Amino acid sequence: MKFKTSIQNKWGRLAILALVIVGFLTLAYAGSAQAAEVVTGDPDAVVAAGVVIDDDLIISGDNVVIDGTITGNLFATGIEVVLNGSVEGSVFIAGELLTINGDVGGSLYSGGCAITLGPQATISRSIYAGGFSLVAENGSHVGHGIHATVFQNRLNGEVGKDVEVVTGAFEFNGSAGGNVDVELGETCSSCLEFVPVEAIQPGLRIADDSRVGGELSYKVTTTNFESVDANNVEIQPMEVDFDELRNSVLRFIVVQEIRRAIGEFISLLIVGGLLVYFLEDRVQSVMGKISAGALSSFGWGLLVVLLFPLALLVAIAVLISLTLVTGFITLGQLSGTVMGLGGLTIASFVIVFVFVLSLVTKAVFAYMVGKFVLGRISQATLESRWGDVRALVTGVLIYEIVRVMPVLGWLAALVVILIGAGAILGAIRDTLRPSVAIA
User: Fold this and answer.
1) 104: alpha, beta or left? (left if phi > 0; alpha if psi -120 to 50)
2) Are residues 159 and 297 in the same domain?
3) Which of 201, 221, 240 is at the close of a domain?
4) Residues paired with residue 212 on neighbouring β-strands, in sequence order
5) Residue 188: its pLDDT value, please?
6) Looking at the 3D structure of the chain, how many domains does it have?
7) Which of 271, 218, 285, 293 is nearest to 395 (CA)?
8) For a disulfide at 121, which of 19, 140, 157, 344, Cβ 3.0-4.6 Å?
9) Are residues 271 and 205 in the same domain?
10) Is residue 439 part of a domain?
11) Which of 154-158, 253-257, 303-307, 315-319 has the lowest mean pLDDT?
């Protein structure tokens, strides 16, 4: 067994929480969009032994017990949830005391005070857990990996691949086919007054007869441990080279800014070229609005940006109302169609709005700046065959040079977007305004 220290960031904890959230969002969706078996108890909800539910199961109650077989996914909530039977799909559970004694064909997504895998528990894929305590007893089996963020963790069973945990107390007396990666932080001893589980002593303890197929990596973010033992390997507090960390962050920011600037430069050239080639009259109209009153265009642009979110909320509310009314009148036959078409329409407007703000406004403004600069230098340059191309490239280059400047670049981009948005709105108003015939 190899040991090493690590100061790598544990993005896994975010993934764990995200996956748990996604799982319970899936529960909400399943209840409304799919035909699933729903069981509620007052106070107990039970699926008896021998009962087979050939579908997903949504079950809730103070005390939930699953002794039967579920051929789909299981979504369970309760103060105490116990799975003694089998689930062919994945399991999503939340509660105070969660116990798995049976078979799970997919993964286990759990959030609760105390999560326990009994000696007969088999999870074919992975466990994603968040809570106070996670205990896998001797005899339990996890086919893939365990990814958990808990205050205390005891793993005495078998894990097929990696173990990744963020915890304050970790005991390992089982086996893992891959790596065991532990981040040790503060525990919550005072929480034991409210959580009905056995306390695990803070620190890291790896039994002599435990088996790790890969490496044991650990990071310690606190020294407030009563006992630390990992096969006589001393664990030191994490040391961070802040100078190197600062330099790494600066390098990352510079590289990302260069990538952004190059990508935006190319995008603006493409969008600007298409606009000038196919919609030259419209582009000239927008430029005229900017020339006639940049401050007025800025004000209108600011108003558009501020009102768009409100208009979007109103559109969504109207769509929901239409869907409900249509569903009531047609007994649900057209509600899905109305929701789908309305949602697609709203999404299309949002995409167009973002595209105009992020690219069209900048491309038109850059083209205008380029024409102004080249016109000052040499009017003949603009009148040549490639005059428009030169103007566009010059304007975009000037914009990107300003854009990479700290603070000033961000402010310049904001001003360009607002002026461009207001000018585009003015040009559209002029197009829609009926012309007055002169006698």
Assistant:
1) beta
2) no
3) 240
4) 176
5) 62
6) 2
7) 271
8) 140
9) no
10) no
11) 253-257
Q: How far is CA 151 from CA 11, 168, 235, in A?
A: 17, 5, 19
- For residue range 150-175, list pLDDT tens digits in order: 888 899 999 999 999 988 888 999 99
pLDDT tens digits along 183-200: 887 666 556 566 667 778
Contact predicate 94/114, CB 8 Å: no
| Pair 199, 261 in one domain | no
Q: What is the pLDDT of residues 194-253, one digit of tens each?
A: 666 777 878 888 888 888 888 888 887 655 544 444 444 444 444 556 777 788 788 888
- Considering the domain architecture, whether residues 203 and 314 belong to the same structural domain is answered as no
Largest interatomic CA distance in the chain: 102
What local confidence, expressed as pLDDT, does residue 385 receive?
Answer: 74
Rounded distance, CA 145 to CA 128, Å?
9
Range(s) of the domain holding residue 120: 2-240
Looking at the fold, whether 204 and 293 belong to one and the same domain comes out as no
The verdict on 258 and 132 lying in the same domain is no
